[in-house]
């Protein structure tokens, strides 16, 4: 029982980190736990999805306050990059959040905060995308 809790906590933390701007990879942990049958598959999907969605929420909240720091020397994104992301978001709208599962999707979650997307809509679309990703990963792993 303690091993299962530790495995799920590790998965949640890794999935959380992977959704932020940190260089984490939750897929490796997810697949390893699935192959080891460390917990029921539905629980792995649920925990990974919650952790990954929570990390995306951090990006959203950072986006809400990012304009305040835009002119700082340490700001990690150039004006051009930020304007390009905002342009993409303005063109495609909230539907870009369905790509939040992809490696470049973290930028969309930050831009959603900058653009003041309604949080309930953000949470719905990101949750669908993140959960769908882990379901697809579980299916692909089971198929191998």
List the quaternary state of the chains.
single chain
Shape: elongated
As residue ranges, the low-confidence spans are none
> Main β-sheet: number of strands, strand sense, barrel status?
none
Number of helices: 6
Cα Rg: 16 Å
Structural class: mainly alpha
Measured as a percent range, the helix fraction is over 70%
Overview of the structural elements:
- The chain has one domain (2-143).
- The protein has six helices and no strands.
- The protein has helices at 2-19, 26-36, 41-66, 79-92, 105-114, 119-143.
- Helix 2 packs antiparallel against helix 3 (41-66).
- It is elongated and about 50 Å long.
- The protein starts with a helix and ends with a helix.
- The mean pLDDT is 90.
Summarize the structure.
The chain is mainly α and 144 residues long. Helix content is 72%, strand content 0%. Helix 1 runs antiparallel to helix 2 and helix 3 runs antiparallel to helix 6.
What attributes does this structure have?
72% helix; single chain; mainly alpha; 144 residues
């Amino acid at each position: 029982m303690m091993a299962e809790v530790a495995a799920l906590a590790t998965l949640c933390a890794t999935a959380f980190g992977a959704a932020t701007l940190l260089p984490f990879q939750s897929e490796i942990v997810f697949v390893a736990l699935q192959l080891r049958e460390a917990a029921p598959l539905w629980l792995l999907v649920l925990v990974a999805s919650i952790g990954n969605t929570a990390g995306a929420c951090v990006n959203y909240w950072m986006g809400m306050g990012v304009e305040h720091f835009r002119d700082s020397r340490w700001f990690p994104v150039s004006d051009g990059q930020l304007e390009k992301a905002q342009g993409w978001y303005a063109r495609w709208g909230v539907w870009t959040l369905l790509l939040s599962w992809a490696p470049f999707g973290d930028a969309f979650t930050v831009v959603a905060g900058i653009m003041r997307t309604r949080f309930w809509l953000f949470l719905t679309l990101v949750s669908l995308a993140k959960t769908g990703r882990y379901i697809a990963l579980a299916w692909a792993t089971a198929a191998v």
